[in-house]
């Protein structure tokens, strides 16, 4: 996994803002918690793919562990798939920010129904989970996906973020979720980037302003330690 390092100056600053605490969120309601699994697709994970993120293969067991914990406690797992159809759908990125050949190749890789678009086979996805396409880095960008509607309808107040890339789609997702009013926890060892430096740049920015940073073990413990919801009283 990436070696996650939070700069001591940044840590001291956010601890001071939190009254000396490391974490803003020390309890969760599992039923109101969603695990947002970002872009764990063949196009990013298989060896030899133009957009391969080698570290992404190594975080699969940790993502599965978080998903199992969320599922067992009545929460929601949402697996997002980066989805493209035409370079003209996002020309500022595919046609201008990238070289034309690279942008065209990325669009081809993540066409709906293609092998690159599919979720990686190592993920434990069940019928209880949600699989959702998104067309931008963040699922919360307007018209990118129905994520905000889904989470609102399910009364979600806390999101755990995992996936790839830490410093691109995962960071964008975490930032937007916090700005929309969700309590955000980034699962540090269940996120993958192209290097430790890029991973830690995102983690440090998120820790300072947007999200609590937790390991898989810590995130699962939060869910496991949450009290069981009382059963509703029988109708009279």
Which descriptors apply to this entry?
236 residues; alpha/beta; Rossmann fold; 16% strand; globular
Task: Describe what this molecule looks like in 3D.
The structure is a single chain. The chain is α/β, with parallel strands linked by helices and 236 residues long. The protein has one domain: Rossmann fold (3-Layer(aba) Sandwich), CATH 3.40.50.850. Helices cover 40% and strands 16% of the residues. The protein has a six-stranded parallel β-sheet, with helices on both faces. Helix 4 packs parallel to helix 10 and helix 5 packs across helix 6. The longest helix is centred in the C-terminal third of the chain and has 14 residues.
Summarize the structure.
40% of the residues lie in helices and 16% in strands.
Give the beta-strand count: 6
CA-to-CA gap between the ends?
Answer: 54 Å
Instruction: Determine and state the CATH class.
Output: Alpha Beta
Class computed from helices, strands and strand pairing: alpha/beta
- Tell me the CATH architecture: 3-Layer(aba) Sandwich
Query: Can you tell me the CATH topology?
Result: Rossmann fold
Query: What's the pLDDT, averaged over the residues?
Result: 95
The total tally of domains equals 1
- Strand coverage percent: 15-25%
- Helix count equals 10
